[in-house]
Structures are given as structure tokens and as C-alpha cells.
Design goal:
This protein has 278 residues and is α/β, with parallel strands linked by helices. The chain contains eight helices and twelve strands. The protein has an eight-stranded mixed beta sheet. The chain has a two-stranded antiparallel sheet with strand order 4-5.
Length: 278
């Protein structure tokens, strides 16, 4: 297991990496039209970065590798959502390949301005995990199985009848329970319910206000990176993806242009690597 944080522009650094070198990319890029300490990108500026960046990511990925971009929609004003996220997803699906639509649901999201009575909208709480790669890219479903409740498992084990669903599909709960017992869990849904980061060990606690929860990074790195693989994050920020990678014995390369975040990421990943038992 090795790791490195490279300070510099992500495109410049990526162009210096060899073809077919990385097993997985897990990243939470900046979003357009959002005020951040590093500035605010227009949608045009965002696309001018992301188009060539995706091309470089495709080049450095192994044939079995894939990339996940965690992106949240945002609004021009309350009641008018910007279309860039769906345009990006359509572009990925058309010009590369979207393996599956997957979403992260932060069920602990606090009410926003959208929820006020005068607007009457729902609470924004999901982010897209835009998963791009070859249709047969590597994934280890066993690494992300969900634990089934004892009540549901007991009911399924006792039910051997063939059950027909309103959609016309049919299933045997007893057989599903037997498979779940054998595998150690049930297959996950494409909606990942994870709370946001904690207040003491999160990216926010380390000084980065837009970090990705460690549990989400762990979910993806364990799912799409083979044992001993190399994970890359071109927008490393405070290093959460790197922490997830090294905790699982994976090698990691992060790219960050902000010197302050580079130091934060190096410190956090170094601490995480020291706790790994080799």
C-alpha cells in the first residue's frame, strides 16, 4: 500500500500519468454556480474542465476500471433546477457508458430554504453517484452487501411459497433468504442511505466545508477497486477518498491545487495509514 498527494492542476497532473494505470476513480468534483473559497465556476467553465478531465480519466483507467463522480444538483432559484447534472449524466451515458444510476441519500439532511412554507418544496437530500466505465468493469458486490433485519430474515426463511408481485414478477422469499444467509447479506439498492459525516473526524472538522462522507468513499472504493488496486481522486480536497483507500489496503493518488488542502489531506491520510494493520 502506497499513497501520494500531488499538488497541482488536475489536468496537468493527469496528462503525465501512464495509460491504463488506475483501477478506480472516486471523486467529488466542484459544482458549477456554487460559491466556494476557491471561487465560483460558471457552467461553461465547469464543462471546459470536465470534458477533457473525463477523457484523461478514461485513458489512465485499466480496461476493467471505472470512475464515480459524486455530484449534487443545484438551483438557479427556488423552483428552477439547473440542468447541468442531467446533461452531464446523459453525456457520460452517450459518449462513454453509465454502468448504473446510483444515488446517495443523506437521510440526515437539515431543512433548507426549499422547505419553507412559502415555497412548499421537498428537502433536497440525494446526490448522484455518476458511475462510468465498461459494462463489464470490475465490481465486488459481496463487499457492499446489506445486513438484513432478523425479523425480515426469519419471515423469509419460513415462507417457501411462490409470491407474485403486482408487476407480474414472482419470487420465493425462502430461496432469497437462503442466498442471503449463504452470502452474508442482501444485495444493495441503487439508493445508498448514509448519514452525512460526523462532526469530529469529517472533512468539515478538518477545514473543508464540502467534503464527502468517509462511509460513502469506503462504500465505493471497496465496491469498484480490486484487492491491492490503485485508487485516484483528481479533486482530493481534504483527502477522504484517500483515507478510505488506505484503510482497505489500497494504493492511492490524490491531486489538489490548493496548498492548504494538500497539507490537510496529507496529514489525515498519514494518520489513517498508521492505523492500518499490515
Amino acid at each position: 500500500m502506497i499513497w501520494e498527494i500531488v499538488e497541482g492542476d488536475c489536468l496537468d497532473v493527469l496528462r503525465g500519468l501512464p495509460d491504463g494505470w488506475v483501477d478506480a476513480v472516486v471523486t467529488d468534483p466542484p459544482y458549477p454556480e456554487i460559491d466556494r473559497p476557491y471561487g465560483r465556476w460558471t457552467e461553461t467553465e465547469w464543462w471546459d474542465l470536465m470534458r477533457p478531465l473525463v477523457g484523461e480519466i478514461r485513458r489512465i483507467l485499466k480496461p476493467t476500471g471505472s470512475a464515480v463522480f459524486v455530484l449534487a444538483p443545484n438551483s438557479e432559484k427556488v423552483g428552477r433546477v439547473r440542468p447541468w447534472l442531467w446533461e452531464y449524466m446523459a453525456w457520460i451515458a452517450r459518449d462513454w457508458n453509465m454502468v448504473q444510476d446510483v444515488w446517495w441519500w443523506n437521510f440526515t439532511t437539515c431543512p433548507t430554504v426549499h422547505c419553507q412554507r412559502r415555497y412548499g418544496l421537498t428537502r433536497p437530500s440525494v446526490k448522484a453517484c455518476v458511475w462510468a466505465g465498461d459494462p463489464a468493469c470490475y465490481r465486488n458486490q459481496d463487499a457492499v452487501l446489506w445486513a438484513q433485519s432478523e425479523a425480515n430474515a426469519a419471515q423469509d426463511r419460513s415462507d417457501r411459497a411462490l409470491v407474485y408481485q403486482p408487476s407480474g414478477q414472482h419470487q420465493r422469499p425462502g430461496r432469497m433468504a437462503a442466498v442471503a444467509d449463504e452470502r452474508g447479506g442482501v444485495t444493495p439498492f441503487n439508493l445508498i442511505p448514509l448519514s452525512n459525516a460526523d462532526s469530529s473526524k469529517s472533512a468539515g472538522a478538518a477545514g473543508h466545508g464540502a467534503g464527502t462522507p468517509l462511509r460513502l468513499c469506503e462504500w465505493w472504493t471497496s465496491y469498484i477497486s480490486p484487492p491491492g488496486g490503485i485508487v485516484l481522486d483528481p479533486f482530493v480536497g481534504s483527502g477522504t477518498t484517500g483515507i478510505a483507500a488506505v484503510k482497505q489496503g489500497l494504493s492511492f493518488v490524490g491531486i489538489e491545487r490548493d496548498p492548504e488542502y494538500v497539507e490537510i489531506a496529507r496529514k489525515r491520510i498519514d494518520e489513517a495509514s498508521k492505523s492500518v494493520v499490515t
